[in-house]
Design brief:
Elements: H1 2-17, H2 19-42, E1 53-58, E2 61-63, E3 66-70, E4 73-79, E5 106-111, E6 115-120, H3 125-128, E7 131-137
Parallel strand pairs: 1-4, 3-7
Antiparallel strand pairs: 1-2, 4-5, 6-7
The chain binds copper (II) ion.
């Protein structure tokens, strides 16, 4: 008991001092892993998918969390997790919640309206802050 509380009180100030840094490093590491998973599953880099812009869903993150695309672009969210399922919805883009995408499955939506359009993972946006952004530019 005593050891645990000493450890916690020693670590808390560190976490409080570098929350943003720790978060960014963590997301970068998770997204690097997500891309490795994607290549293992589909045999090519996610940037090489034809006709769509790929966002990976992995460990409660969208990778990359923010993208900028021209109007008319179809975004494909691909679940590269091993067990967790995700959904995608965007009230701002008038995109209703998708079916659950299980590992190796995907969700697609075509963004037509210019502007910043936030989207969410239905089961995880509130508890895990699984939230992403698509900035749509005029064609
Ligand atoms: Cu999710």
């Amino acid at each position: 008991m005593k050891k645990t509380s000493i450890l916690v009180s020693a670590l808390l100030p560190l976490a409080a001092a570098f929350p943003v840094l720790a978060g960014e490093d963590n997301a970068a590491g998770i997204c690097a892993e997500a891309e490795e998973r994607y290549v293992d599953l589909f045999g090519q880099a996610s940037a090489e998918a034809e006709g769509v812009t790929v966002v990976k869903m992995y460990k409660y993150n969208f990778c990359p969390a923010a993208i900028t695309v021209p109007a008319g672009t179809t975004v494909r969210w691909v679940n590269v997790d091993k067990r967790t399922s995700h959904s995608v919805l965007s009230p701002q883009a008038e995109m209703p919640e998708s079916d659950r995408a299980f590992p190796e499955e995907s969700v697609e939506f075509t963004f037509l309206t210019p502007g910043d359009q936030e989207y969410l993972c239905g089961p995880h946006w509130e508890t895990q802050e699984m939230i992403g952004m698509v900035t749509v530019t005029a064609e």
